[in-house]
Amino acid sequence: MTRQRVHNLTPPPPGADDGREAAGWGADQAPPAEAASRLPARSRDVRHGPGNRRIAIGAGPAEEAMKIVVVGYVRVSTDRQENGPDAQRAAIEAWCKAKGAELLAVHEDINSCGASSLESRPGLSAALAALPRGAALLAAKRDRIGRDVVLVALVERLVERRGAQLLTCDGAGEGTSPEAGLMRRIIDSFGEYERLLIGSRTTAALALKRSRGERTGTVAYGMRLCADGVHVEADQAEQSVLVRIRELRADGLSLRRAAQTLNDEGLRLRSGGRWSHHDVRRVLAPDVNRAEQRRHRARRRQGRAA
Question: pLDDT for 210-264, tens place per residue?
Fold first, then answer.
């Protein structure tokens, strides 16, 4: 909180004073701290709190200094994350207790990626909307706000527009100096780098599992899980249905007509349900993706030749 002296702009009536001369100091002199409480409120020092409200220092209980007002925010990308929601919430509550801050609420985004947009994070949107002027948005660490430099900068700008500030429990990068701003950008950049690195490792691990014939998620149509529960193999019954679907599409039938033909022929989904055009599109998605990849490679070769 900033501290400044406030003067009453209305001049006192002739012959009147504010008690300074009687106390033994001049009208232009600041009173000693121990005597400040004896002055009228218009001559005391004041402290600016949330909402730019002025609070007199050395005042009685009715003019107590206001606490820092905080809205907490928690984000986790997975339920198994070590620094889970309970740990982050505990850190926020401990920070507020140590600082004597008033915690209004804690908003959460569970299973939310650090690069998710603001529109897809209702917890963060609610926290921003709940910020009163002069308050603070508090997170355990800056990477809980996001792991995308542009996103974090956007959140900071929205917080500033509400007349609030963005704080973290570890205090990293706080302050208004150029060095503090640089530190915040470095932290945000490393957060984004870490997210991209994790994504790259995950993609490589999944590609390795697929090359070994291992399951990497939902078993695709036309495949089935082996007895060991790890590897997958072709399901001949479903493979024959895939062949039939490709034939129908090659004959020029639309997705709806192909689904209707499958139902008329008594062919059913893995769950036993009837085919729809959405199901036909879904099981053909790998073929579409491979065809698109082939077209992309052909366009690249043409571009090099030109």
Answer: 787 777 778 888 888 888 888 888 889 999 999 999 999 999 999 999 999 999 9
Q: What is the mean pLDDT of residues 99-115?
A: 90
For 108-149, how does the pLDDT look when each residue is reduced to its tens digit (9 = 90+)? 999 888 888 888 889 999 999 999 999 999 999 988 998 888
Between CA 93 and CA 101 the distance in angstroms is 9
- pTM value is 0.50
Q: Which residues of 239-250 are buried (b: 16+ CB within 10 A; e: fewer)?
A: eebbeebeebbe
Q: What is the CATH number of the domain that holds 123?
A: 3.40.50.1390
Q: For residue 131, is it within any domain?
A: yes
In terms of domains, do 76 and 127 share one? Answer: yes
Same-domain check for residues 74 and 39: no
Paired tokens of 162:
């509400």
Tokens of 254: 């639309």
The model's confidence at residue 87, banded by pLDDT at 50, 70 and 90, is very high
Q: 210 lies in a domain?
A: no
Mean pLDDT of all residues in the chain?
76
By mean pLDDT, which of 10-24, 149-163, 265-279 is the weakest? Answer: 10-24
Structural domains counted in the chain? 3
Given 37, 63, 89, the domain boundary residue is 63
Tell me if 201 is assigned to some domain.
Answer: no
Question: Are 45 and 87 in a shared domain?
Answer: no
